[in-house]
Amino acid sequence: MYGWGDDKGRTESIIGSWFAKGGHRRDKVVLATKVYGNMGPDGPAWPNHDKLSALNIRRAVDASLKRLGTDYIDVYQFHHIDRDTPFEEIWQAIDVLVQQGKILYAGSSNFPGYKIAQANETAARRGSYGLVSEQCLYNLYERRAEMEVIPAARDYGLGVIPWSPLHGGLLGGVIKKEVEGGRRASGRAADTLADPAARARLQSYEDLLDKHGLEPGEAALAWLLTRPGVTGPIVGPRTAEQLDSALRAVELELSEELLAGLDEVFPGPGPSPEAFAW
Fold this sequence. Notes:
Strand content: 5-15%
Low-confidence stretches: none
Distance between the termini: 41 Å
Strand order of the largest sheet: 1-2-3-4-5
CATH architecture: Alpha-Beta Barrel
Radius of gyration: 20 Å
CATH class: Alpha Beta
CATH topology: TIM Barrel
Order of helices and strands: HEHEHEHEHEHHHHHHH
Number of domains: 1
CATH superfamily: NADP-dependent oxidoreductase domain
Number of strands: 5
Mean pLDDT: 95
Structural class: alpha/beta
């Protein structure tokens, strides 16, 4: 979907063009893409033009493989739950694709904990492999996934791949950049900063990291890498400098004092049912 309009699928085509340059690029990459969104013309989707019906999954995989210029996808992810398609049908389609060698594994994205359980219990009854990963919204600012999503993923052996690890840039030192005349926050990030309580919280976060001599964005990524079950945050750098900064987070070690301070600024909800029952 990313690219929207006439550019639907363009991101896959870019990767496909890069693979075509040779140098065993495809062999060195773990390739993941998704299925769910309407890849047809803009406007209301016809039946089987989106979501997780067996027919749409089959069509979507073949279209993605063509754009990517490869014959297999390592991790094929369900972008959202499909309330209209039973998991029995979904796994039947996935099993065929695995047998054909078109995909190796299936993963989920934005699934609640009970749907992870439902998906994998259905797979187990069929003798299917089940989900291997869950891609969810998870970062210091937004920790609700700790209640049920991450525990479910860990219990079923799924790797957790957090998206928006800097929460739309809010955890990347947005206030400091604003003061220094850098790129200003926009969209949802700007709306959050307009809330005095949220702004004060982010200021405390930036002050804490300044005290420890750390860059906010790097620390936020490093924090995610300390979390049980997390295999790798999804970064979206716009520049080479931002990519270098993200890579530095891999080598960063956060002290117990700092981790405790981050928990004070952004306390997690705690596990369920304690988080909402008492």
